[in-house]
């Protein structure tokens, strides 16, 4: 009975330590999991969607410069606008889930090159609509293609940023699980060894 009474505070301290370790670990895991769900996965999805729709709008603008049939020339601007609207919608949703300064910097850079890209595209489409295809093609090669390349690269920066963040947060989760398991094992071993040594001394 005396041994049980004397060991109770130590046992309580050990249980408290394990509980505190578990609480901290679970909190860390929860935060990383929440960041993956609320930031990383939506970021990857929206950045990917924006890049895909950007490419579709770009391809149809090129087709507009080559189209000869009046019906096709009337249809392509509507398709271009549709994909452009979808890109804008994806980027608007992306902006709402920005939580980090690095992500904000990348996004602002994307918007800057996007504005330049759209300004040039509007001018090229106006030239094509006026039947000035030669001028439109010249502007396309000289201005619009470089603007598109810059826009595409800025979009890929967003995608790579979220991909890297997801990988880092996944590694944090795995590392926390490993360290927690190791710490609990060490505490149990120390308790066992301490109890064994204490028990031998009591018997001595």
Write the layout of secondary structure elements.
Layout: H1 2-66, H2 70-96, H3 101-129, H4 133-203
Can you summarize this structure?
This protein is mainly α and 204 residues long. The protein contains four helices and no strands.
What brief labels describe this structure?
204 residues, disordered N terminus, mainly alpha, 4 helices, 94% helix, 0% strand
Structural notes for this entry:
The protein has 204 residues and is mainly α. Helix content is 94%, strand content 0%. The protein has helices spanning 2-66, 70-96, 101-129, 133-203.
In angstroms, what is the radius of gyration?
30 Å
How many helices? Answer: 4
- Strand content is under 5%
- Along the chain, the helix and strand elements come as HHHH
Largest sheet: number of strands, sense, barrel closure: none
Mean pLDDT: 78
Low-confidence stretches: 1-7
Cα shape: rod-shaped
The total count of strands amounts to 0
Whole-Å distance between the termini? 18 Å
Q: Please state the structural category.
A: mainly alpha
Helix content: over 70%
